[in-house]
Amino acid sequence: MKKQSFFSRIVFVLNYLFALLLCISYLAPYVSVELLPFLSVFSLSLPMLVLVNIIFCFYWLLAKNKRVFLSAFVLVLGYFLVDLFIKFNFSEEEPKENDLKVMTYNARGFNINEWSSDNTIGDKIIDFVLKEDPDIVCIQEFSRIRYKQLKQNYNYSFVAPDYNVSKAIQGIYSKYPILKTGELPFEHTNNIASFADILCNNDTVRVYNLHLESLKVVPDIEAISNEESSKLYGRITKSFKRQQEQALIVKNHIKNTSYKTIVCGDFNNNQYSNVYRVIRGDLLDTFNEKGTTYGRTYNFKYYPLRIDFILASDNIAVTSHKNYDVKLSDHFPVMASFKLGVNK
Question: Mind telling me which residue stretches traverse the membrane in this protein (predicted)?
Answer without folding.
Answer: 12-32, 38-61, 68-86
